[in-house]
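quick one, 316 residues, struct below
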Amino acid sequence: MKMLDGHLNIIEKIFYKSFVEFNNIEKCFYKQKLINKAKRVILYLDYPKYIHLGDALWLEPIARLFAAYFDFAICCATEIEFYFRKLGYKIIHETQISENDLLVARTELAYHLKGRDVLWINFSYSRITEPLINSVLNNIADYLGVPRSTARPQALRFSSSELEDTSLKFRLDPDRSYAVLNNYIHSLKFGASKNDFHKAEEALLNFADIYRKNEKINIIHAGTAEQKINDMNIHDCVDLDLRGMTSVEDLFMISSMKNVVSYVGFDSFLLHLFNIYDKNSLIMLRPGFSQVLKKQIKEYVAVPYETDNKKVLFID
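---
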């Protein structure tokens, strides 16, 4: 519980922790014994300060489960709507949610959604003994009394013309192999200082430079426009700087390209994106995790679903 994301304010943190403790929520939790089938079920993801892009991927298998049994829709941030639309889900906006709807949401949103009818899902991984998405999905399936389903998030597939257009747009050479580098983190964990992060970032960039030379690979630098403004350094390991130039959909397409072979960076959205495209990832964990949580992340979170083909290497 200590490793709460820094983007929840203090009131939200206190309320969330008290809510989970009071209701003894270890798995999923709903105040009613059964879900009224007449209710529309909405997966609620439209809280960008806490629900990040990686959460959207993690929650897609849960969306798939509810969509199979209920009148179902997703409320999410605009930048990730395309992902769910392309997979065939119905998308609604916040203003379209009614008081009669049942929301499905992470327990961290307890304060934001207080007073609403919510089926809560707990993504705590400190004590799980199976991959995180499997654990959450199995809890929900058991509660609903339905068969357990596949925990691997679905990848989007793109046409050859879409990929060619994207490759030309960003000047990717089809005869070269690329790795995507992201040396930024969305938020520091409790107990980690900026100095800790800068040391980790320096080690990551040094690793990327060695990896680039040894593998004879080109490095694509990914990040937001804001991250580029805050990092005006010219990094020797970078061949193609796309910071601030790519949409989330662009990143999906780039990650799916055959000549984009790996991701180098911190444990973030891009790790999970490369996972679903069966690509290699070379990962440095963000500073601030205890040794116990590091072990849990490596075992059950970095690849959060059951697979015999894990492709994540951890950089120490």
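The CA atoms of residues 275 and 303 lie 7 Å apart.
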